[in-house]
Specification:
This protein is of the alpha+beta class. The chain contains two helices and nine strands; from the N terminus they run ααβββββββββ. It is elongated and about 40 Å long. It starts with a helix and ends with a strand.
Length: about 150
Amino acid sequence: MVTKIMAIAIFSFFYNSVESCSNPDKTNQEIVDIVETQEEETINLNLGHLSYRQKIGSDKDGKGSEFIKIQVVDVTNPKLHSIAVEVFHLENGTENILGSFALYPSDNIGNFLIATQGKLNPGGMVLLKLVVPETTKQSDSVNITLKKVSFL
């Protein structure tokens, strides 16, 4: 079990490394502009809105999906607070953690894969929670923009 988790973590690390290095000529801002022109729904997590829920709609989204892909397309974090996102599966009032990821550096965009552990079912929900240090002040500017969760 530990070996499988380590393999998934290593895969996720290399996937993110390759993804962010795949086009070194583009700046983060150019990548964000391209995403915004595709008119896809985005989600903002910040100090005023720490969580987001997305329904698992169809069999395609739930059963058989091995990973949840979360794309961070923009980050505002001038004080470079450490930022993490916890990913949960909600079903029948039960909240089960699937995993988490952290931005590094803490103002960097990227793609993150979280293993579903076979827990997704149509009718359930995926819950994302922004985690920042307790010392972060409400007046601090912390915002991450995500694309809707996709299922792989």
